[in-house]
Amino acid sequence: MTAPSDARPRGTRLPRLARRRQLLAAAQEVFVARGYHAAAMDEIADRAGVSKPVLYQHFPGKQELYLALLEQHSHALVEKQREALESTDDNRQRVTASFRAYFDFVAGEGEAFRLVFESDLRNVPAVREKTEQTLQACAELISDVIRQDTSISDEEAHLLSIGLVGMAETSARYWLSNFGTIPQEAAEQLIARLAWRGISGWDLTRGG
Questions:
Q1: Which residues, in sequence order, are CB contacts of 184 under 8 Å at separation 6+?
Q2: Where does residue 206 rank: exposed (0-12), middle (13-18), buried (19+ CB within 10 A)?
Q3: Of the candidates 127, 146, 195, 193, which has an alpha carbon nearest to the alpha carbon of residue 166?
Q4: What distance in Å separates the CA atoms of residue 150 and residue 152, rounded to the nearest whole number?
Q5: Are 65 and 27 in contact (CB under 8 A)?
Q6: What is the average pLDDT value for the chain, to the nearest integer?
Q7: Is the pLDDT of residue 2 over 50?
Q8: What are the residues whose beta carbons fall under 8 Å from the beta carbon of 88, sequence distance 6 or more?
Q9: pLDDT at 172 exceeding the cut of 90
Q10: In what helix (H) or strand (E) does residue 85 lie, and over which residues does it extend?
């Protein structure tokens, strides 16, 4: 439940971009706590400390607000994956860094991962398209590395990358649901070791 005391004070004028960030932060809190369908624009406005008309000035409807959040966090996940893969030329370390990107994402503040991985709007075409694009973007980054460093075909590299992304997402979410049983670094290393034992079976065309 959102207690009235959680609402932010009204009346402060902010630059447009700062106001947008404020509204998105408030919407994230409500969407994560309630899910899309139970969330109300009135509650989001109260949480942000603005009037409902101010909220509608920035976002014409609840779905547009949700899609803006989804875009923001999907982009963040893809960038985490890109940075992980570019952080080293050592392929074993790349595997670990790639899994760490997913674990860091699900462990991040505000449970943003729920908007990407656990949306109750998966049947809405725009939401489904964005989540699928995010999966494919992460997989393509990994696939590029596999293609560069092995002699397997493009199709095989893409299939492997889809499998790795699925492993990363599923294991990271399961780890979070059992938070505290295994330290994050140990969990990352465990899953990365499993993945590396499989990937390292292919002959490398350059340094590993």
A1: 103, 107, 175
A2: exposed
A3: 195
A4: 6
A5: yes
A6: 88
A7: no
A8: 94, 97
A9: yes
A10: helix 62-86
